[in-house]
Write a sequence for this structure.
C-alpha cells in the first residue's frame, strides 16, 4: 500500500477513486501510572516509554485505515491526515484518514 | 505544616532540576538542529514535478512537565495571563519532534519533507505529546 500526505505519488497516475478511508484507536491519556513517570513529573523531561506507546497507537490507527483501503480494492491512500480528539475524560482518540485510490505506474 | 514543606520541597526540586534539564535539552536541540538544517521542511501538499520517490514519515515525543511548572500553571490559571513555562515546554517538544522527523528523512536519503503537519495532545495537564508527520521527497 502506497501512503502519502501529499496529493500525488511520484511516478504514478490515479486511475480510480474509492472515497475516504479511516482508522482510529482510543487510548488512555493517563501518563502517571508508573514510578518513572511520577518521578519525571517532578523533574520534567521526556517520557520515552510513552513516546513509544504513542507511536504504536498511531501505527495501529494507520494500519486500520490501510486495512479499509485494501478492503475497497485500493492500492494507495493520498493526503493522509491525523486528528486527535478527547472522547471522554482521560481518553483520546487518534484518527487517521485519507483518500483511497487506485494508481498505476507511469510508463 | 508537614505537607506544606513537602510541597515546597517538590517545587524547589522541580525548579532546580527541571530548569537545568530544560537548559540541557535546549543545548542538545540547537546542536542537532544544525546537523539536520539542510533537510528542508514545507507544509505544501503538492508534489513537486521532478520528484522521483516519496515516503510518509512520522515522529513524536512525549514530554512531562516538572512540578514547578505544574504549580506555576495552577497559580496562573487563577489570575490569568501568559504561561511562559508552558510555552517553553511546547517549543521544546515541537523542535524535538521536528528534529526526529528530519532525522528520518535524512536516514531515508531525502533532502526535503513536503506536506509537513503538527498535531498536539495534552496528556491530562501533566505532559504533552507532539506528533509531526509529512512526506519525504527525493528529487
Amino acid at each position: 500500500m502506497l501512503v502519502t500526505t501529499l496529493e500525488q505519488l511520484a511516478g504514478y497516475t490515479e486511475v480510480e477513486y474509492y472515497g475516504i478511508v479511516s482508522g482510529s484507536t482510543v487510548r488512555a491519556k493517563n501518563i502517571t501510572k508508573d514510578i518513572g513517570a511520577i518521578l519525571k513529573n517532578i523533574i520534567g523531561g521526556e517520557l520515552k516509554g510513552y513516546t513509544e506507546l504513542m507511536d504504536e497507537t498511531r501505527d495501529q490507527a494507520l494500519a486500520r485505515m490501510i486495512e479499509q483501503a485494501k478492503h475497497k480494492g485500493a492500492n494507495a491512500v493520498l493526503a493522509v491526515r491525523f486528528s486527535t480528539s478527547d472522547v471522554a475524560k482521560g481518553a483520546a482518540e487518534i484518527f487517521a484518514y485519507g483518500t483511497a485510490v487506485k494508481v498505476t505506474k507511469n510508463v | 505544616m508537614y505537607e506544606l514543606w513537602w510541597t515546597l520541597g517538590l517545587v524547589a526540586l522541580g525548579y532546580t532540576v527541571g530548569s537545568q534539564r530544560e537548559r540541557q535539552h535546549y543545548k542538545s536541540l540547537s546542536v542537532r538542529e544544525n546537523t539536520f538544517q539542510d533537510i528542508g521542511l514545507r507544509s505544501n501538499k503538492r508534489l513537486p514535478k521532478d520528484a522521483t520517490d516519496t515516503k510518509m514519515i512520522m515522529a513524536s515525543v512525549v514530554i512531562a512537565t516538572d512540578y514547578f511548572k505544574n504549580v506555576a500553571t495552577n497559580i496562573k490559571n487563577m489570575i490569568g495571563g501568559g504561561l511562559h513555562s508552558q510555552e517553553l515546554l511546547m517549543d521544546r517538544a515541537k523542535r524535538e519532534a521536528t528534529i526526529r522527523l528530519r532525522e528520518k528523512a535524512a536516514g531515508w536519503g531525502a533532502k526535503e519533507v513536503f506536506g509537513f503537519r503538527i498535531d498536539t495532545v495534552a496528556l491530562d495537564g501533566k505532559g504533552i505529546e507532539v506528533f509531526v508527520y509529512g512526506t519525504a521527497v527525493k528529487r
Q: What stands out?
A: The radius of gyration of chain A is 18 Å. Chain A has a mean pLDDT of 89. The beta strands of chain A are 2-3, 12-28, 44-46, 76-88, 91-105. Chain A touches chain B at residues 3-11, 29-32, 37, 40-48, 50-51, 54-55, 58, 79-84, 90, 92 (CB under 8 Å).
